[in-house]
Design brief:
Elements (H helix, E strand, L loop, with lengths): L10 H12 L3 E4 L10 E8 L3 H14 L4 E4 L12 H9 L3 E6 L11 H19 L5 E4 L12 E2 L2 E3 L9 E3 L19 E6 L11 H13 L4 H14 L9 H5 L1
Parallel strand pairs: 1-2, 2-3, 2-9, 3-4, 4-5, 5-7, 8-9
Antiparallel strand pairs: 6-7
Helix pairs in contact: 2-3
Length: about 250
């Protein structure tokens, strides 16, 4: 089995990865999903932590000629999406898709109640659509639910990023690492592929994921009171449990 790869999360490496995939596939956002089309790779970003990092990656992609899907959590405790209308407008203006990253844990819905989950997704899509002025055409899950994982291609008329078709070849940088090894060395030989990244892990130069979170924590809590900083740190741990920010109290005491 391949060792995981976590030694280069720079934008320059990301562009090399996209170039490698685009030599084999047409690169598309999820809104252009076609289950009958061959040799398409669908680009997606789940925005778990930071909208600013999403905007930075959107610029990198647009300048290189790539379009992808940016998926936001309307119920996120780490960012109030309504506060980022300007950033979402900029991402859309570059040609990227804005879509929903649904988090059951922060949406006050029973994960076993499929009807309630789909109804809440509709409600959150309407909320995001009011901001963007466009319908929301795609959905992904934060910590995917088993009842939807490798399921139908569409949920409520929206592209399901975790459908069986889109998971047939799927690579993700979850927790700041590629579990199947260097993704450039693990290029697929499949008719449809999906490539997921989380912008929080990427930057102009490589940094370890715990350090990325540490820098994000310091920047976003610089003007907060101590209790508010502690709350933000706890929310980071809940949202990204696979990575603990460097110098976090729970890590120091571990």
């Amino acid at each position: 089995m391949s060792q995981h790869f976590d030694s280069d999360f720079s934008y320059s490496f990301y562009l090399k990865l996209l170039a490698a995939y685009s030599a084999r596939y047409e690169m598309k956002p999820l809104r252009n999903f076609d289950p009958t089309a061959l040799n398409h790779c669908y680009l997606r970003h789940d925005i778990d932590v930071c909208v600013d990092s999403a905007l930075a990656m959107a610029r990198i992609e647009a300048e290189a000629g790539y379009l992808s899907t940016y998926m936001f959590i309307p119920s996120s405790p780490l960012y109030r999406v309504e506060s980022y209308r300007a950033e979402l407008s900029q991402i859309r203006a570059m040609g990227h898709e804005v879509a929903i990253h649904f988090d059951v844990a922060t949406s006050a819905v029973d994960p076993e109640d499929r009807v309630a989950v789909l109804r809440t997704i509709d409600e959150q899509c309407a909320r995001l659509s009011d901001m963007t002025g466009e319908p929301i055409n795609s959905v992904s899950f934060h910590r995917p639910l088993p009842i939807f994982l490798k399921g139908p291609d569409y949920l409520g008329g929206r592209v399901n990023a975790y459908s069986a078709t889109l998971m047939s070849h799927y690579r993700s940088d979850s927790a700041g690492r590629w579990r199947n090894g260097n993704p450039i060395d693990e290029l697929p030989n499949a008719p449809i592929a999906q490539l997921l990244t989380h912008p929080i892990w990427w930057g102009n130069k490589h940094e370890a994921p715990d350090l990325r979170l540490e820098h994000n924590y310091r920047r976003r809590t610089a003007d907060l009171l101590e209790g508010e900083r502690q709350e933000f740190s706890a929310l980071l741990e809940e949202t990204v449990p696979g990575v603990i920010r460097r110098h976090a109290p729970s890590k120091i005491s571990a």
